[in-house]
Design goal:
heterodimer, A: 781 residues, 4-stranded antiparallel beta sheet, 28 helices, B: 200 residues, 5 helices, 27% helix
């Protein structure tokens, strides 16, 4: 025994060094829960825009706040007082609850810069005929109900530039005001729209922003007023899903581990055996995290959640070792000789399956693949090369041959169920054929870790506030701010034509508030000198019910505007337009992007080809129309398609491997058949239960094949002459139960990604075992 | 067994209301007053009329005229469709005001603009015979007889007084004939309303 131990020393030393290295890497690993795992590794320009928008875009910084409970006056008071506190907090760019805090500043900015901002300012407009037409129109406006507002401006702005500018401001319908603060349509909740300075992808900053909102609400007496604060938005989603993933990964791994440990304890009746049995698992988990960390720079929370479930599979190897070597009278070396080749083939099969995920352009999937391969290889290798040396002398686990004998009798009769299995399989195939068009979910939201309740709250608040969903956007890019502003102006002209035709309800452009220097200079150049303007005015007012002398302030202000400094970004500070421009003008690695959000006509959709054709006609290079929702759905269906192809590739690799190893198409078929049957049956059951399958279900199916291959191989290994040993059967059942425990726990997770894995793998591996037993070649005895 | 020692308050209230209605419907008026004018106006469920509005503004050298249609549906929807000089439509429905001009549409909440709200309430409140709504913003006085009355509205709060000096509404029975608005700066407008004879 001493000699045996000495033989194992190098292996143990190597293993410890490996563990230490993994521990160091893991300790330095950054764990993320954001959307990065769902973003493509080599994005197209549209996808890059989508990613930028999700991470940094204006919409990503939006927090929608609702105040519920109490009564309407209390809610409005809370809204005003909370908003007041938040406006003083530099973490927030704007806080909007319907109070007209910026209105005066906004209007002053527009009025003071009207001759630089108004697109109507052209040389023609300031000739006698143009002036006549513009003034006549303003007088018509005086006759209308809006006249009350225009009257005082007539002497200073007879051409109505301010009216042009105001008309271009967002004409969306704001929420109704109740007691001076925004409220939902039914009046049941007060509403607030908050824009954070930090980007939506900065989860820590979003978390502290949420805390600041809650503090402000509490300080306003929100705690005592029986009112509740609710929040939603992309940043809030990141924060809550991070908390959910963190919390669940913790809880689930504790529960899963407890279940597996109790199960093993029940079987082994020995704490030493339990502790030793978990050695390969711990090594595998550590290796998995370290590998992903090295390969991707960070580890996603979902990968960790998946890792906890994989414990249930990694523990199988030690179960096989302990229970099966019992068969050999406790000689592990004999086990290595007799069973290791089968297990090694099982591990290789799993690697073939998961290696396909490594090739995925979807980083989340590639992480799962790498984690699984590294974890399983480490667990199997430790079981094979290290664990036998760690076992104490005379190590025995509780004799499970009684259980094995029962199983053996069951297995002997299992073949009788072949017809039943065939019926179930045919039915399952029929279900899949019938539902073939609706098996897979085409919606990217199926991947979102956000709970349904949170999505419902978001939808409600978004409808209440009329917050932009920023689905359609035109993006122009260029080397400088001036360059993209100029392009934006050209694109705006084309878009305005579509608005006039009713094809668009409206659009926004940074050039509305910050025109290019070229456009501003051109407008200044359109303004005539005072004497010329006076002469033209005298001509223009002929036939109109106004006297030229009324317009002395106009002449003075036009004259001042001719030499007015051009509008710079800094001039917008402290107006509501500043935030809009900041969100629409983005610099990225020295390249500028201008985003022009489009608004679809009510009840209609935007015709993408119409917009694209119009954009092409403007001749602006690098102008791109993006439908962000279509883009994200497209992205997801791309992943799904790719994952399907890769999985089929993985399956082909598994078949090839089995063909090479067994050198028998019949045996290969015999191994593959139960696995395929399990996959088909589980899929059909999921479809029948009304679920649309996602990419994570696909990963689950791959796992069913990986885990199930061990069972099928053991049954196959027994060969035509030998009955499968009772203890081998017992070890498979125990291994199966631990896998079911590990993944079964995930089925209760509220994080949909983890739940999808759980409900696929747990029933799948049970079926794989059952089908392996039923479809195994009957022994001739 | 439950005994009512006295009738419940709501029963009393509905009895009283019934009595008031019965009195209002009585053909013989002892003394015609504001409440009776309001009651007779309140009986209008809907109406369609044409209008001609003349504005006299200091900045203009002569009055400007606009014309179109007025549509009213009880209790709180009022639509002003201007046809000349520029087609335009203004709809007040409950608390929301929307204006459509050319292909632009503006929407605003009356609550956010108390001056405009008070202004609109003067017309809508009169058409609806809603004394409570009118008295929120104006001091009311009535003159004349059911066959020819003049209702005068004087703004109550200082902000309104800075814009509107006085609104005079004249009519006969339950029909409004003219609305005359005198602004604080001396500008004024007069709207003459003619009940449409051709109901569509």
């Amino acid at each position: 025994m001493i000699a045996a131990r000495r033989r194992g020393t190098p292996a143990i030393v190597l293993w410890l060094a490996f563990l230490a290295a993994c521990a160091v890497i893991t300790a330095r690993t950054e764990f993320t829960t954001d959307l990065s795992a769902f973003m493509p590794r080599s994005p197209s320009p549209e996808q890059r825009l989508l990613m930028d928008q999700l991470r940094e875009g204006l919409a990503s910084r939006l927090i929608l706040v609702g105040i519920e409970g109490a009564d309407a006056p209390a809610r409005a008071r809370l809204s005003r007082q909370t908003a007041e506190r938040l406006r003083a907090d530099p973490a927030f760019v704007t806080v909007n609850n319907g109070e007209a805090v910026n209105l005066e500043r906004d209007q002053a900015f527009l009025f003071d810069h009207r001759y630089l901002l108004s697109p109507a300012v052209t040389p023609q407009r300031f000739e006698a005929a143009g002036l006549h037409a513009a003034i006549a129109e303003t007088i018509d406006l005086l006759a209308s109900p809006a006249g009350l507002l225009v009257k005082s401006m007539l002497p200073r702005d007879p051409t109505g530039e301010m009216v042009v500018l105001l008309g271009r401001l967002d004409s969306g319908s704001p929420p109704r005001l109740v007691e001076g603060a925004w409220a939902s349509g039914d009046g049941a909740r007060a509403l607030m729209l908050v824009q954070t300075r930090a980007s939506g992808s900065d989860t820590d900053a979003q978390e502290s922003a949420m805390a600041a909102i809650r503090r402000a609400f509490d300080a306003a007496g929100g705690n005592s007023a029986s009112a509740q604060l609710v929040m939603t938005g992309p940043g809030v989603f990141s924060v809550t899903s991070r908390a959910a993933i963190k919390g669940q990964v913790g809880t689930l791994s504790v529960i899963g581990l407890a279940l597996i440990a109790s199960l093993l304890l029940l079987v082994y009746r020995s704490f030493t055996a339990l502790a030793l049995g978990l050695v390969p698992v711990a090594s595998g988990a550590l290796a998995g995290v370290a590998a992903v960390s090295l390969g991707f720079g960070s580890v996603h929370g979902i990968t960790l959640g998946f890792g906890t479930a994989l414990i249930g599979e990694a523990v199988d190897y030690s179960i096989y070792l302990f229970v099966q070597s019992e068969q050999q009278g406790g000689d592990q070396q004999l086990w290595v000789k007799r069973f290791w080749p089968t297990i090694r083939l099982g591990v290789l099969t799993s690697i073939c399956g998961f290696a396909s995920l490594l090739l995925s352009g979807f980083p989340g999937l590639a992480q799962l693949g790498l984690y699984s391969i590294a974890g399983l290889v480490a667990a199997a290798a430790v079981t094979r090369f290290v664990l036998p040396h760690l076992l104490p002398r005379d190590f025995r686990v509780h004799d499970v041959s009684a259980l094995g004998a029962v199983l053996a009798r069951l297995v002997a009769r299992a073949a009788a169920l072949r017809w039943a299995a065939a019926v179930v399989l045919v039915a399952a195939c029929a279900v899949l054929v019938q539902h073939r068009s609706s098996v897979w979910s085409r919606n990217i939201s199926s991947l979102s870790p956000v709970s349904q309740a949170d999505v419902a709250l978001d939808t409600r608040l978004r409808a209440d506030t009329g917050a932009p969903d920023a689905r359609y956007v035109v993006v122009v890019s260029g080397p400088s701010r001036e360059d993209v502003l100029r392009s934006s102006e050209q694109v705006s002209a084309s878009l305005q034509a579509q608005v006039d035709r009713g094809e668009l309800a409206g659009f926004e452009s940074p050039s509305h508030y910050l025109p290019s220097a070229a456009a501003q200079q051109a407008r200044q150049a359109s303004l005539p000198e005072p004497d010329l303007l006076r002469a033209r005015l005298a001509q223009a007012v002929q036939g109109l019910p106004v006297r030229a002398e009324t317009f002395a302030p106009f002449i003075a202000e036009v004259s001042a505007a001719r030499n007015q400094p051009l509008v710079q970004a800094a001039d917008l500070r402290h107006t509501s337009m500043a935030m809009a421009v900041e969100g629409m003008l983005i610099e990225h690695d020295g390249r500028w992007n201008a985003l022009l959000p489009l608004k679809a006509p009510q009840g209609g959709a935007i015709r993408a080809d119409g917009i694209r054709a119009a954009l092409a006609a403007t001749g602006v290079p690098n102008a791109l129309f993006v439908d962000l929702k279509a883009e994200s759905d497209h992205l997801y269906s791309g992943y799904l398609q790719e994952a399907s192809v890769l999985s089929l590739g993985g399956l082909a690799a598994i078949v090839a491997l089995l063909l090479v190893v067994t050198r028998s198409p019949m045996r290969t078929l015999r191994v593959i058949l139960p696995l395929a049957a399990a996959v088909v049956t589980v899929t059909a059951a999921l479809v029948l239960s009304g679920r649309e399958l996602t990419i994570l279900h696909l990963v689950g199916l791959l796992l069913v094949v990986a885990v199930g291959s061990n069972y099928a191989l053991f049954f196959d290994r027994a060969g035509p002459d030998a009955r499968i040993a009772p203890r081998t059967l017992a070890s498979m059942l125990i291994a199966n139960l631990t896998t079911v425990a590990g993944f079964g726990v995930l089925a209760f997770s509220s994080v949909s990604l983890l739940q999808a894995l759980g409900i696929t793998v747990a029933p799948g591996v049970i079926l794989a075992l059952a089908y392996s037993a039923i479809l195994a070649r009957p022994s001739h005895d | 067994m439950i005994h009512f020692t006295r009738p419940p308050a709501s029963l009393l209230a509905s009895l009283a209301a019934g009595w008031v209605l019965a009195m209002a419907a009585a053909p013989a008026f002892a003394a015609w007053d504001l409440q009776q004018l309001m009651d007779s106006l309140a009986q209008n469920q809907s109406g369609r009329a044409t209008f001609v509005e003349t504005k006299r503004l200091a900045v203009l050298s002569r009055p400007i005229e606009s014309s179109g249609e007025l549509l009213y549906t009880a209790p709180d929807r009022l639509e002003k469709r201007t046809l000349k000089p520029q087609p335009e439509s203004m709809v007040v429905d409950g608390d929301s005001l929307s204006v459509e001009r050319g292909n632009r549409k503006y929407q605003l909440q009356l609550q956010a603009y108390p001056e405009i709200a008070a202004f609109i309430e003067s017309i809508r409140g009169t058409l609806a015979g809603d004394r409570k709504a009118l008295e929120r913003n104006y001091r009311l006085s009535v003159d004349g007889s059911p066959e020819g009355w003049v209702l005068e509205l004087l703004p109550l709060n200082e902000k309104m007084k800075a814009v509107i000096q006085r609104i005079r509404i004249s009519g006969a029975r339950d029909q409004v004939r003219t609305i005359e608005i005198s602004q604080a700066d001396g500008d004024s407008s007069l709207m003459v309303i003619e009940k449409s004879t051709s109901p569509r």
